[in-house]
């Protein structure tokens, strides 16, 4: 299968993305890759792979097998792998959403993953680094930025873009590890709640704003019929 071509955008169109990346890396200075994502036009292809190839190329199954071989409980191994994949899809973008009310595109055809030496996921990247904001944001009109008409529209768009990626991960984890649908979506909810709870303090955002944005994201996914709301409250 041919890998998608990543075209280097003009430098001025990357300013918003680069600035967001710097702020996200600062959330955990000792582990700067936890929330930030890479621009794929700046990366080589070693250890990088498109999320869309996760099932076809057997990469997710291989990750699970490696973790299961190292752990006594295969169910825990399945949850470790699923959590890493979910964080790559929605946990990272939730960080910028909670901190700034902005988002990038975590869609299936846009998201790439990076493996560390042990075969785990330690980074994520984007083919298209366009940042979405709400109309009236100070970045509105800047290169590399698309403004949506209102805050609810941002959540609807982001839920739509996350859905295809998350459904692929769900399918892969069910197929190779037997991870149940209910448990998978509870892990998705935990990723959202985790970002909404942790990010406000280091980002200088109020906990109330973090809670609002976390709950709004859960609601947007639930409106698409995805079972994320059971027992998940951002405090």
Description:
The chain contains seven helices and six strands, in the order H-E-E-H-H-E-E-E-E-H-H-H-H. It has a single domain (11-223), classed as Transferase(Phosphotransferase), domain 1 (Orthogonal Bundle). The relative contact order is 0.16. Strand 3 (111-115) and strand 4 form a beta hairpin. The chain is globular and about 50 Å long. The strands form two sheets. Strands 1-4-3-2 form a four-stranded mixed sheet, covered by helices on one side. Strands 5-6 form a two-stranded parallel ribbon. By secondary structure, it is of the alpha/beta class.
- Morphology: globular
Number of strands: 6
**Residue-averaged pLDDT, rounded?**
91
Strand order in the sheet with the most strands: 1-4-3-2
Major sheet details: 4 strands, mixed
Percent of residues in β-strands: 5-15%
- The end-to-end span amounts to 45 Å
Q: Under the CATH scheme, which class?
A: Mainly Alpha
Percent helix, as a range, is: 40-55%
CATH topology: Transferase(Phosphotransferase), domain 1
CATH architecture: Orthogonal Bundle
Q: For the CA atoms, what is the radius of gyration?
A: 17 Å
